[in-house]
Amino acid sequence: MSDQFTIELPEQFTIATAMPVSEKMFESLKSGAKNVEIDGSKVERADASAIQLLCSYAITAAKEHLQFSYKEPSEALQNSFLMLGLTGCLKSV
Predict the structure, then answer these.
(1) For the chain, what is the domain count?
(2) What is the average pLDDT across 50-66?
(3) What CATH number does residue 32 fall under?
(4) Per-residue pLDDT for 90 more than 80?
(5) Contact, 75 vs 41, CB < 8 A?
(6) Between these two residues, 36 and 92, which has the higher pLDDT value?
(7) CA–CA gap between residue 11 and residue 45 (Å, rounded)
(8) What is the reported pLDDT for 1?
(9) What is the extent of the structural domain holding 22?
């Protein structure tokens, strides 16, 4: 069991690519890791469903007492949160 778990987001983070990310999120919850890092540095596009997935994960992580952070969220990822009015989900930025 490692204390750190990293989830890398794809360049095109959309409903079409959300399933593998969702599976990694579920894996992180079951791994016993205490810290989860979401690497959003490569995201060039993120749609509303992808942002909703991240916000849902943030809520679940908090309930499970996981510490998580975003590693260098791309400008496109940050703008997607902003356009949806969900910048609160980017709490570590």
Answers:
(1) 1
(2) 91
(3) 3.30.750.24
(4) no
(5) no
(6) 36
(7) 7
(8) 53
(9) 4-90
DSSP 23-87: HHHHHHHHHT-SEEEEE-TT-SEE-HHHHHHHHHHHHHHHHTT-EEEEES--HHHHHHHHHTT-G
Dump pLDDT digits (tens) for 13-57. 999 999 999 999 999 999 988 999 999 999 999 999 999 999 999
CA distances from 78 to 3, 6, 71 (A): 26, 19, 12
The predicted model scores a pTM of 0.89
Instruction: In whole angstroms, give the CA distance from residue 2 to residue 43.
Output: 26
d(CA 16, CA 49): 9
Closest to 27 in 3D by CA, of 72, 61, 77, 69: 61
Measured CA to CA, the distance from residue 69 to residue 80 in angstroms comes to 17
